[in-house]
Amino acid sequence: MSSGQCMMPLCALAILLSAPGQASEPAHQSIGNPLVAATYGAMPRKVPDERREPVPLIAPELWITVTDYPMHAALDGLEADVETELTVAEDGRVSECVIISSSGDALLDSKTCKLLVRRARFKPALDDEKRPITGVYRFSHSWRIPPSRGLSDARKSATQYSRR
């Protein structure tokens, strides 16, 4: 039997589902799993390199924590969302932070970027030769008053802080 023929029921299904007038490759040749492809004598498709974009080294949720919630925002009862675009340099550090969607509070926006520049680290984006290049990563954060730092607690903390 020639390599272009297909003996699997899956091939018949693939041929039936293909668009009219289009040639369909046998299903076993389009399988991306190398083990399955090797079993049926087909070469696996090239899987695109997923590291072309920056990849966070730690979970992005850990970049900004509840302990980072600004006191002024707690005193004002401010809760808001901030969306950023981070430029990630070849060394994996954030070289620039741009606010795409503001929280409406300049101090919250500023604090968001300061924390991200200080804490966010990445595997850098890669070019076609797998060399590190500058890349872009979008990050959103929701500033919410931590349960243990309700408005009354925040006022107490602010009062205690101002007495020192």
CATH-defined superfamily of the largest domain: TonB
Strand content: 15-25%
Major sheet characteristics: 3 strands, antiparallel
Order of helices and strands: HHEHEEHEEEEH
What report would you give on this structure?
With 164 residues, the protein is an alpha+beta fold. It has 2 domains: 1-47, no CATH class; 50-163, TonB (TolA/TonB C-terminal domain), CATH 3.30.2420.10. It has 5 helices and 7 strands; from the N terminus they run H-H-E-H-E-E-H-E-E-E-E-H. Strands 3-2-7 form a 3-stranded antiparallel beta sheet, covered by helices on one side. A hairpin with a 5-residue loop joins strand 5 (125-126) and strand 6 (132-133). It starts with 8 loop residues before the first helix and ends with a helix.
Question: Which secondary structure elements does this structure contain, and how are they paired or packed?
Answer:
Layout: H1 9-17, H2 34-39, E1 55-56, H3 71-76, E2 80-88, E3 94-101, H4 106-119, E4 122-123, E5 125-126, E6 132-133, E7 135-143, H5 151-163
Antiparallel strand pairs: 1-4, 2-3, 2-7, 5-6
